[in-house]
Amino acid sequence: MNYYEHHIGDYAAATGHLSLIEDAIYSRLLRRYYLQEQPLPADVAQVARLCGARAADEVAAVEVVLHEFFQREADGWHNKRADEEIARYQDKQAKARASAEARWGKDAKPSDSDRNAPAMRPHSEGNAHQSPDTSNQAEKQEQKRVQPAAAPCRFADFWAVYPNKKGRQEAEKTWRRRKLDPICDDLIAHVQLMQTADDGWRRGYIPMGSTYLNQARWEDIPQQNARAGPAPQRQETGKTAQALMALEDFGNGELDQAGNRGGAEALDVLGPGADAGGRGHPADRRRLA
Known about the structure:
Shape: elongated
Radius of gyration: 48 Å
């Protein structure tokens, strides 16, 4: 046996009165007993040699331990508790072997038997040798289900197209926490759109990946560049021409109340002014409603 149960409470209660040497000898003899799965030799001197007792006091301790915890029979010194554990272990070993043989040997085709039975028998025997207290290990191994492989994370696909490469670790943590694999293609499409249509992104103002994912920036609408160049300057004209031009703008609804483009309001021509060709006509000096 490669393993046996050591009940600390039972052992302490039974051996608390032993000296250090006696306790060490008893422990060594038990390990030898379980390893060989058979009684200790009937010869005390041979037993002493097996546990390493050399000095006179050590040999004397061997005799004390044998007479207190073992019983001498025809085939050697027996320990009742150890015999029970070994018998239980051997019984389970036999059952495990029989279970494997019944499963893989009975009604199996020669090719199947040759391929499967040799592989399973050592496996079942290994389980039986592992612990005297373990039952039906071979059957438990057969009942294990194969778990489906986890789907690969798609963060790498997203990161390959995201232009700001700073803070990858934080971005990946956010990705996994928010479980964004199902919408990976949508995020990639949005990133590509922002790079071509958003003025800030085109000028290099791109948030870090963790910020983009934390704040759900994929819901943003690309901001077109609304900055227009300077309005074309009108040539120097007289007030009459200016009034006519303003009237045209007003009629088109392009002037507001302050005289700016976008609304309608009365415009006054302040006094006479000079046209490009000289003084304006009196008819031009009128109030524009």
